[in-house]
Write a structure and sequence with these properties.
Layout (H helix, E strand, L loop, with lengths): L9 H9 L7 H11 L4 E4 L6 H14 L11 E4 L3 H15 L8 E4 L6 H8 L4 E4 L1 H9 L10 E4 L2 H6 L3 H9 L6 E6 L4 H10 L4 E4 L10 E7 L5 H12 L4 E4 L3 H13 L4 E4 L5 H12 L5 E4 L14 E4 L6 H8 L9 E7 L4 H11 L5 E3 L13 H7 L15 H7 L8
Parallel strand pairs: 1-6, 1-7, 2-4, 2-5, 3-4, 5-6, 8-13, 8-14, 9-11, 9-12, 10-11, 12-13
The structure holds adenosine monophosphate (AMP).
Adenosine monophosphate binds next to helix 3.
């Protein structure tokens, strides 16, 4: 189906052509006409499905004919869980908006950087605000913007937003929005908490479920490699060298592990940098830019990087430590095989983490054979009985099982200290 069949204006059809999008993705086909009709939308959408362009195009079409007030008042609000996603969504909206005759001003605001430039940027007003919840609340506290005129709210990666403990911030923001508005709700997964939020927010929504994202998911080959925890670094080096991988994203459980592993790889003459929440924003931006430009071979990341990053042609993702939940697994492996490219996701599994991996497998509805790589056959037996593994939260590979133990950050967020984590 061509983009012209979706009801998009000629300027926006030109915009997608400029981006070299040949035809709309499944979510774009379903969401764009519904949004243009003013319907609320509830979409099961994963990164890589083209979800950002789906809502961005429809929102831009609505803005195309909106009068320009002086100063501009935000008409659309996009809430996202992480700074990286915030920057990417902002870029995508601005890129698509270039073809419009009416200038659309997009403000991108997130925490972890100085608030002053963001306040200055908002002084002249904005049509679209893309924000992480914590920083948006700070800015509202400074009267840097008003949400009174918002026509459309997008909640992107709603599950991640709740996972990160943003429920309270969301409530504060929702309380400042006009009742009469369009709501677009996107989430990769729908646990009970997300469903409850959706039910409360949405009015007779158009439901869109791109069950297992047809464009990308089948293109991801998921493999599990059996290896003893102590030999994982060597196995990783072996795989990088044997396969000649030019770029690989490696996930670990903790910031410390990211630092350690990157250091070990560098010692072995493999270009590697850690990527996690304790780095300065400048450092993170630089590492990501180097990785995207193939100046950096290995990026060793915590789950902070698992969402929202859009890195073209990333052939391999390695779960050096397993993720805490099946949801995080989905997001991690979604970093490869994006927009129709093929990719491989490798998970290192030890005797101690096998039970946890099987659980992820079950929730993912996949079955991976536990492969052994010659020279790296595991010899260690499980240190705990299989039944205990799921709740033990072992630090030897899973980083703890989601929901069983709250991190310090979670507790701070829950205590409502206005901590803006990302
Ligand atoms: P998203 O799911 O929004 O993170 O998008 C994933 C990637 O798909 C981004 O790099 C987009 O630029 C790209 N994309 C979005 N729509 C299309 C399309 N219709 N055709 C090809 N690529 C697309």
């Amino acid at each position: 189906m061509p983009f012209t069949s979706l009801g998009l204006s000629p300027a926006l059809v030109r915009a997608v052509a400029r981006q070299a999008y040949l035809e709309p993705t499944a979510i774009q086909v379903q969401a764009i006409p519904a949004i243009l009709q003013g319907r609320d939308v509830l979409a099961t959408a994963q990164t890589g499905s083209g979800k950002t362009a789906a809502f961005a195009l429809a929102l831009l079409q609505q803005l195309e004919t909106a009068p320009i007030d002086s100063p501009r008042r935000p008409l659309a609000l996009v809430l996202v869980p992480t700074r990286e996603l915030c920057a990417q969504v902002g870029q995508e909206i601005s890129g698509l908006a270039k073809s419009l005759q009416r200038a659309v001003k997009t403000a991108v605001v997130y925490g972890g950087v100085s608030i002053n430039p963001q306040m200055l940027a908002l002084r002249g007003g904005a049509d679209v605000v893309v924000a992480t919840p914590g920083r948006l609340i700070d800015l509202l506290g400074h009267n840097a913007l008003t949400l009174q005129y918002i026509n459309a709210l997008v909640l992107d990666e709603a599950d991640r937003m709740l996972d990160l403990g943003f429920a309270e911030e969301l409530e504060k923001i929702l309380a400042q929005l006009p009742r009469d508005r369009q709501n677009l709700f996107l989430s990769a997964t729908f646990p009970a908490s997300v469903q409850a939020l959706a039910e409360r927010l949405l009015r007779n929504p158009t439901r869109i479920a791109i069950a297992v994202e047809p464009q990308t998911a089948p293109a991801i080959t998921q493999r599990a490699l059996a290896v003893d925890p102590s030999r994982r670094t060597q196995l990783l080096r072996h795989l990088i060298e044997q396969n000649g991988w030019s770029r690989v994203l490696v996930f670990v459980a903790t910031q410390h592990a990211a630092e350690m592993l990157a250091g070990k790889l560098r010692k072995a003459q493999i270009g590697a940098e850690p990527f996690h929440g304790a780095l300065t924003q400048g450092k993170r931006t630089q590492v990501l830019a180097d990785f995207k430009a193939s100046r950096l071979r290995v990026m060793v990341a915590t789950d902070m990087a698992a969402r929202g990053l859009d890195i073209a042609q990333l052939p391999v993702v390695v779960n050096f430590d397993l993720p805490r939940s099946a949801t995080d697994y989905t997001h991690r492996i979604g970093r490869t095989g994006r927009a129709g490219e093929s990719g491989t996701a490798l998970s290192f599994v030890s005797a101690d983490t096998e039970g946890h991996f099987r659980l992820i497998e079950k929730r993912q509805r996949i079955q991976a054979i536990l492969e052994q790589i010659p020279g790296f056959e595991p010899v260690e037996a499980a240190t705990q009985p299989a039944a205990a593994q799921e709740t033990a939260g072992s630090d030897r590979g899973t980083g703890g099982i989601k929901g069983k133990r709250r991190s310090k950050k979670d507790k701070l967020r829950a205590a409502g200290l206005g901590f803006d984590p990302l």
